[in-house]
Amino acid sequence: MEEELKCPVCGSLFREPIILPCSHNVCLPCARTIAVQTPDGEQHLPPPLLHSRGSGAAGGDHADKLSLYSETDSGYGSYTPSLKSPNGVRVLPAVPAPPGSSAAAARGAACSSLASASSSSITCPQCHRSASLDHRGLRGFRRNRLLEAIVQRSQQGRGAAQGASAAAAVAVCQLCDRTPPEPAATLCEQCDVLYCAACQLKCHPSRGPFAKHRLVPPAGGSCKSPGAPGAGAAAGGAARKYPTCPDHEMENYSMYCVSCRAPVCYLCLEEGRHGKHEVKPLGAMWKQHKMVWDQINHCTLKLRQSTGLMEYCLEVIKENDPSGFLQISDALIKRVQVSQEQWVKGALEPKVSAEFELTLDSEPLLQAIHQLDFIQMKLAWFTFDPNSGHRDIILSNDNQTATCSSYDERVVLGTAAFSKGVHYWELHVDRYDNHPDPAFGVARASVVKDMMLGKDDKAWAMYVDNNRSWFMHCSSHTNRTEGGVCKGATVGVLLDLDEHTLTFFINGQQQGPTAFSHVDGVFMPALSLNRNVQVTLHTGLEVPTNLGRPKLSGN
């Protein structure tokens, strides 16, 4: 996934990433180096303008709006003179101010040149699409806070892993009397004991019964003690032993039998069953079959890219930031679709001769890519929001279970907000004492939170006891329906913003008719309850296709 977190310009982890109109990301500092001004006509901008990319509070704003110039009006700069970033993207080198000129004079020249310019633009370093900048410059592009959070979490995880590996890499002597023990210098493979240099000389000399023991470094590799038998041979490296023919043990393989697809020696050709077979030199066949590495590398690259994309998608979903997710969800959907098309349309075509075929089974990967359909917000994962709930609300189980410390009804909202699509979630009643009236439904963010859900005009709810239920909005009770809840019951909420309806279910059976129609706007999942009730939220559910028919409502 690390490649997903690197800027295409500098090749480092993103810093202050911004989202370009093409949905690609780039560091804000890097964007300043690839932005282009399109001047009127073909006139080049003066050198002081190029110097305006320098630091300073006053100059930074102009550096956002303008960093380079173009020789045409197309918005694609010539980037001349230019350097190349680590990823091959051309950037403009820093140009010193003319002798005798001050930074203020340079900024003044930049301002005057900017005022006379017709437009400024930036070209995406990945897809090479150009986008014009308005009066806000680069600050007009949205900051990708979600990507920034994932980069920060990745850096923290990497630091913790490095610290753990560094701690685990230090092996200590198991026989030392010192405190702390000395670092281990050798490991005896026969004794399975770690020794420092001093303890090895004292407790495990290279003579007598220990002379045939093999000493290696703690991390592996040959580490024969000086004077031990075979130490010189170990230091010089063992001679390579070539495989021999099993039928003629003294002969090395020298030819390759094409008919049997096996290496053979020359005696096999003269005396054995390969005498009349087609054979080729072993070296030539080895070089021909080494072409498999090209295919392996190709497949590995595609696997790494697709795996990194899936890991990145999962990290995006972990972020509890609906607005940040919606900023980039469309781009992620497109990237997943493109990745799937690349695999299907030839990413796995064989690139070696028919004599050596390598086929990679792509079915598991394609299935994993198909499973990423949840990115399209067909399914939504969310929890109760500890920041928006009433102070008497008590959350647990990673904010998925809610109860209350008060005998009065208190409201808590979910962390998701919906304005389109079809969404379904369920609430399991974990505890139900003394016949309370919990209310389930949706609400605006500004709903009143110290009374039952549905009593104001900001909530649409179904409240229910152990025998019956009612729909409520603006304190208006409608559609009394027989059938209530108890411990272990499940209440389902179906919000269909395509049809603009809200429907409720109890234990898989629709409770009454469609509760509310003409539902339009932005809604958040909502719940009100008191201390006699505890419920657990279940999200990311598909809309059930086997929901029961509605119960008939009463008066």
Automatic annotation (TrEMBL):
<feature type="region of interest" description="Disordered">
    <location>
        <begin position="41"/>
        <end position="64"/>
    </location>
</feature>
<dbReference type="InterPro" id="IPR018957">
    <property type="entry name" value="Znf_C3HC4_RING-type"/>
</dbReference>
<feature type="domain" description="COS">
    <location>
        <begin position="317"/>
        <end position="375"/>
    </location>
</feature>
<dbReference type="InterPro" id="IPR001841">
    <property type="entry name" value="Znf_RING"/>
</dbReference>
<dbReference type="Pfam" id="PF00643">
    <property type="entry name" value="zf-B_box"/>
</dbReference>
<keyword id="KW-0862">Zinc</keyword>
<dbReference type="InterPro" id="IPR003877">
    <property type="entry name" value="SPRY_dom"/>
</dbReference>
<dbReference type="GO" id="GO:0005856">
    <property type="term" value="C:cytoskeleton"/>
</dbReference>
<dbReference type="Pfam" id="PF00622">
    <property type="entry name" value="SPRY"/>
</dbReference>
<dbReference type="InterPro" id="IPR050617">
    <property type="entry name" value="E3_ligase_FN3/SPRY"/>
</dbReference>
<feature type="domain" description="B box-type">
    <location>
        <begin position="175"/>
        <end position="218"/>
    </location>
</feature>
<keyword id="KW-0175">Coiled coil</keyword>
<dbReference type="Pfam" id="PF00097">
    <property type="entry name" value="zf-C3HC4"/>
</dbReference>
<feature type="domain" description="B box-type">
    <location>
        <begin position="240"/>
        <end position="282"/>
    </location>
</feature>
<dbReference type="InterPro" id="IPR017903">
    <property type="entry name" value="COS_domain"/>
</dbReference>
<dbReference type="InterPro" id="IPR013320">
    <property type="entry name" value="ConA-like_dom_sf"/>
</dbReference>
<dbReference type="GO" id="GO:0005737">
    <property type="term" value="C:cytoplasm"/>
</dbReference>
<dbReference type="InterPro" id="IPR000315">
    <property type="entry name" value="Znf_B-box"/>
</dbReference>
<keyword id="KW-0963">Cytoplasm</keyword>
<dbReference type="InterPro" id="IPR043136">
    <property type="entry name" value="B30.2/SPRY_sf"/>
</dbReference>
<keyword id="KW-0206">Cytoskeleton</keyword>
<dbReference type="InterPro" id="IPR013083">
    <property type="entry name" value="Znf_RING/FYVE/PHD"/>
</dbReference>
<keyword id="KW-0479">Metal-binding</keyword>
<feature type="domain" description="B30.2/SPRY">
    <location>
        <begin position="361"/>
        <end position="552"/>
    </location>
</feature>
<dbReference type="GO" id="GO:0008270">
    <property type="term" value="F:zinc ion binding"/>
</dbReference>
<dbReference type="Pfam" id="PF22586">
    <property type="entry name" value="ANCHR-like_BBOX"/>
</dbReference>
<dbReference type="InterPro" id="IPR001870">
    <property type="entry name" value="B30.2/SPRY"/>
</dbReference>
<dbReference type="InterPro" id="IPR017907">
    <property type="entry name" value="Znf_RING_CS"/>
</dbReference>
<protein>
    <submittedName>
        <fullName>Tripartite motif-containing protein 67 isoform X11</fullName>
    </submittedName>
</protein>
<keyword id="KW-0677">Repeat</keyword>
<keyword id="KW-0863">Zinc-finger</keyword>
